[in-house]
Amino acid sequence: MGTSGWGAGRRGGRHAVVVGGSLAGMLAAHALAGHADRVTVVERDRFPDGTKPRPGVPQGRHPHVLLEGGQSALESLLPGFLAQLRAAGAPRVGMPSDLVLWQDGRWFRRLPATTHIYTGSRAQLEELVRRRVLANPVIGVVEGTDVVGLLGDASRVRGVVLRDRSGDARGQERTLEADLVVDASGSGTKAPQWLTSIGAEAPHEETIDTGLAYASRVYRGKSGVLDGDTVGYYVYPSPDQVHAGGALPLEDGTHLVIVSGLRGDEPPTDDDEFVTYTKRLPHPLLHQWLDGAEPVSPAFGYRRTANIRRRYDLPGRCPAGFVATGDALCTFNPIYGQGMAVAAMSAVALRDALSDPRRTPTTRRVQRALLAASRQAWDISAGADRKMPGAVGNAVDGRPADRVADWYLRRVQECYPGDPVVGRAFRAVLSLSEPVTALFAPPVARAALFRPPAPTPTEPPTSPEDSGD
Predict the structure, then answer these.
(1) Confidence class of residue 331 from pLDDT cuts 50, 70 and 90?
(2) C-alpha 238 chain-centroid distance
């Protein structure tokens, strides 16, 4: 990729290397397979048999949701995938009908679902994707191996430097040449250092960090509030209610319970203290359910929740032949559940940029397409987090346009728990299936600007409503 492009019909022996074999890396490899004779995925872990979590996915034991924007992208990349996901038992949860939801002091009406999420384990979804992607003979994988540097110089990357992880940490290095290197190594990427070591520039990083930390534990319910028409419960965080948490269903009939707090008030992973921490939520619903539920896993904590966007698209000494995707490009606070969807949407953007017959897919053009695929998720996550107390980082202040829109978006958010029209639009935007402009459609604007917020339940609604009226 560069001045000559990587378009269809220019396959002459081209080799692409993808750094990282999780969701973003596998889907990037799949997108590249139509434009290269060989794609090699380099993964530091060894892939497990079945659906076990991997050490290289430190948040893998915590709740993951697949938003509708990600569902559409995955189905575009791997036709029939959603049917496979359902056949594997992944719960498909209707929003807001199937969940008891609370935010900003209000319970949500359980209106008929206008969007659906999948709430199965990250390990299950990764294993299904990996099986589909690696069935392609063009794609190979090198497991148990670290990428420790780049080959090339400030003008072009020409491959990667590898080191086997199975032996001596200072073991012998070897090289793997490539025409394109895609960094999908996740939020802990070392690519900025690799680039500076070959004379290129590290990208400018935008950061917003609320200090949010969370802990998760799997429970099997016996009876009570998370049965029948109610499959889960969630309290969203806000500046006035910084503690969040809930329970979401997994593919085996258990629930994954999560609680979160901000810097200085992190959730514990001790068994009894984990349950006690749920009392910080604004209603005892979850705590009451845990009293009758059986824990089937330890509690696991996670604290690396900063939003970080690496601006490889900006002018600078960025070599041809290198792009970043997934969390290596844009890391979101995981509490918003966007990462898997953006990984899939980024792979679609990569595929489409390489296939565009109108434009040569230069490195910068492809990188801009990847950034654009993550922009809406960044605006949602960063926009919410910069309002949280104690948020720090060089992007906390935002742009003047962000501040101008805040008042209107606050009105929309006040209406969304109880108004069917506003709720449909807001959920579509949050699920990354509609652009933010959907919030400014005339019916939404009329409700937000000229009507008081619709009444909402005063207690947790125990069943869904029959209609949206």
Answers:
(1) very high
(2) 20
Closest by Cα among 162, 73, 130 to 376: 73
Going by their DSSP bridges, the two strands 322-324 and 180-183 should be labelled as parallel
Q: Where are the alpha helices (DSSP H) in 120-169?
A: 122-134
Are the C-beta atoms of residues 422 and 448 closer than 8 Å to each other? Answer: yes
**Token pair listed for 135:** 């069935």
Query: Distance (Å, rounded) from C-alpha 26 to C-alpha 32?
Result: 10
Q: Which two tokens stand for residue 33?
A: 């397979």
3-class secondary-structure state, position 16? strand
The three-class DSSP label of residue 241 is: strand
Helices (H), 297-387: 339-355, 363-385
DSSP 3-state of 327 = helix
Confidence of residue 262 (pLDDT cuts 50, 70, 90): very high
Question: Considering the chain, what is the average pLDDT of its residues?
Answer: 91
Q: What is the DSSP string of 63-128?
A: ---B-HHHHHHHHHHSTTHHHHHHHTT--EEEETTTEEEEETTEEPP-PPPSEEEE-S-HHHHHHH
pLDDT in tens, 64-115: 999 999 999 999 999 999 999 999 999 999 999 999 999 999 999 999 999 9
DSSP conformation class of 342: H
Q: What are phi and psi of 397, to 5 degrees?
A: -70, -25
The pLDDT score that the predictor gives to residue 11 is 43
**61 falls in which pLDDT band (50, 70, 90)?**
confident
Beta strands in 153-190 (DSSP E): 157-164, 173-177, 180-183
> Which DSSP string corresponds to 377-440?
HHHHHHHHHTTSTT-BSTTSS--HHHHHHHHHHHHHHHHTTT-HHHHHHHHHHHTTSS-GGGGG
Instruction: Report the C-alpha gap between 9 and 21 in whole angstroms.
Output: 27
**Of 424, 402, 357, 291, residue with least CA distance to 9:** 357
* Residue 38 main-chain phi, psi, to 5 deg: -150, 135
d(CA 137, CA 39): 9
User: 396-429: per-residue pLDDT in tens?
Assistant: 987 776 667 788 999 999 999 999 999 999 999 9
Angle at 330 between CA 216 and CA 61, to 5 degrees: 20
Give the span between the Cα atoms of 50 and 286, in whole angstroms. 31
